[in-house]
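ARCHIVE CARD
SHELF: 3
SLOT: left
DATA:
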Amino acid sequence: MAWYLILLPLLAALLAFLTPSPAWRPRILPATAVLHLGGLLAALRGPLRPGAWLALDPMGGWVLLVISVLFLLCAWYTPAYLALRPNRDNRIFITCFLSFLGLASLLAQATHPGLVWVAMETLTLSTAPLIYFNKNQRSLEAAWKYLMIGSVGIAFALLGTLFIAYAAHMGGLREPLRFDRLCLEAARLSRPWLRVGFILSLVGYGTKMGIAPLHTWKPDAYGETPGVVGALLAGGMTSCAFLALLRVQTVMAAAGEGPFARGLMVVLGLVSMAWAFVFLVRQGDLKRMLAYSSVEHMGILLFGIGLGGPAAAFALYHLAANALVKCVLFLSVGNIHRSYDSRQLPYVTGAIRRTPVSAWLLLLAFLAITGTPPFAPFVSEFNLALLALGPGRTWPGLLFLILLAGVFLAMSDTLVKVVFGAPSRERARTPYRDTFGTTAPLIAALALALVMGLWLPSPLASMLRSSAALLEARP
């Protein structure tokens, strides 16, 4: 089943590349997404047995489930979107889109630090052409920036991997240095080299996540890419990088270096939230606003893992909540952008009169992502705030709450004008209208975020608890 989850999307990508008809090619996406999610659910129902190089443990299973659901929603939306762009060749777009799912499946199941690094790098290369889809000067610049900064990040991640391997070498361990073996024999690892390896991994994979101040590729990449690609990057690519970092964190926890790693994560998490808040104030570009919102939520993930204990489970829960709601935000902003042929204030105002369904979905998704009940982000953010205010850490908890409130006010200032303002007379209405294909996936994603906020099935709750136990190096 491990190979099925990897090879199915990769073979579908090959099929898409060889298919001559641009009209038939988009139909491969939803079919592959359904088969992938079905295979993953079947795999998760059985015993999660570790393999030599590939294994679906609870943490990898949770992240891959989030990505597979997100991919299905995006694949549902994409044919309708591509039908609006008949002047663009969709061969490379769909091939890279499908390759992303295959490589994300490889990363989620990889048990060796080197294989995780390879999967992360190839994932970056496969997504770069998606950013260049609009084929203009700005998208070219954004794609190069994404590749260049990503390359620096992945170089740091490679150094981190080598330092961890050297820490194992100093402890007398030899290949294969799988994560489970590193955790079992963590007491033998050289602590100084392991610490350096973690810091370099945090910088490297943190760059891929887009945490501040390593996020500089994000505003350009999210701003110039189609909304559906932005959704995949914000909910999928960043989740993969986060998982890679968590794998290293498990080794740190097993070696007794958990407090050191968690302290760094708390600081970087709060820095990311503060940085995002500053750039969200009076932000006039909708997609850049979503990019900085993504920086904020990467900070929340790090902050939650940094708190440790029960907060780790809520951080992983927030990973899913963020992916679902970001999907709604990016796709609804993409629809509004298509209606106005602009994403800039003051041209984009009064969207509720032009694209009422997309505008309402944007408004509800904004309320959800800023922690308004009863959506899923409320559950994770509320519980993280409660746990952050525990004994001995009042100031980080208070700062977390202040930054959440500040981001809510900053985003609301922009979004209220976009949704309820007077329609701009300087921007002629384009032929775009909300359709079933461009709005139904958004409604489904928001409904899932709502259901998650009210009820989480016991198998998923059990998977979250098992994942949190892995992070604490508990059996």
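SLOT: right
DATA:
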Amino acid sequence: MNTLLNSPSVKNITKKMSSLHFVIAILFVSTLYVSVCNLMFAEGSLLHVSDYTVSLLGKYLCYALLALAVDLVWGYCGILSLGHGAFFALGGYAMGMYLMRQIGDRGVYGNPELPDFMVFLNWTELPWYWAGSDNALVMILLVFAGPGLLAFIFGTLAFRSRVSGVYLSIMTQAMTYALLLSFFRNEMGFGGNNGLTDFKEIFGFSLQSPNTKLALFVATAVMLAIGYALSHFIVNSKMGRVVTAIRDSEDRVRFVGYKPQHYKVWIFVVSAMLAGVAGALYVPQVGIINPGEFSPLNSIEIVIWVAIGGRGTLYGALVGAIVVSYAKTRFTAIMPEAWLFGLGGLFVLVTLLLPKGLAGLVTNLMDKIDPPATEKKPSSSDKNDFNKSKSDDATLAVENK
């Protein structure tokens, strides 16, 4: 194994491929593999990937995009948000409103203008905020604008007041809990406790069609790749380096002339929009959106994904979300009454054995392939030059006096 890792070809490949190229290559290969195995191989074949698995993988990729959004603000800016589930749910509701309008007169009550839950509640017309919800462009605008506007208002108020640390985390929890209680109310016009469901089609294609499910999976993979490339560009740009400096020492950044609150609001809004896109892709693949998505527990679980994957490493967030989501699926099937203990045990083990998360394993592996250059020990000639320089400086200081 060590021979393979230390071979010149492997070293050359790892040097040429950044994490961006590597993640996009993995996404491309895995998406192509799932698509080909779903379309080309019949049921019963060992290589066949079922429609259920395709939808499940699509859901995992949505979670990965959501974890990427949280890692952007927590791992690189030090903002521990425990309310990102709210942005995810708002994006989901924007998509859900569009899908509800696509049902038309095929609902239970056959009303072409009003969703079933509005007919049941004796509503006679759509509320003003549903205007244009049957238009795909309006829906896409709402997916970005809804979470982005909420993040801008919340971030401006919080960061201008210099709220940080545990106080900010509590405020984000309060925000998502307030939205949870609001969306439970039937008067809000979002289906109350039952939420929005019974979707029929998206962009004219049936949601029950296997081809539509596969297309949604591919679209999610593409959006995840775009989101990863955007995040990679941000953290490696000058603004990204300022954001990282704010995480390490906000007071020093402010002292040298920057305004940290502006950068924090900006990165918070970008992150919220990414979470909104994840929610919009999630809803047509699971077929429902309800107030439970605003639950504070959901937002805490997102932070656990990032912690297990490796905070401050974009690919670690993706790995953490997929690994934990898969473990949750397996645990609920194997031990439905004790799956929370299994998930908690996994979190404890990773925290104790891998303080840098699963990404720490990757870093150690890369160090074995290409060890970092050791610090050069000063030679005797360097020491003589250093002593000569000190002597010259002392002579110059005496002459200046």
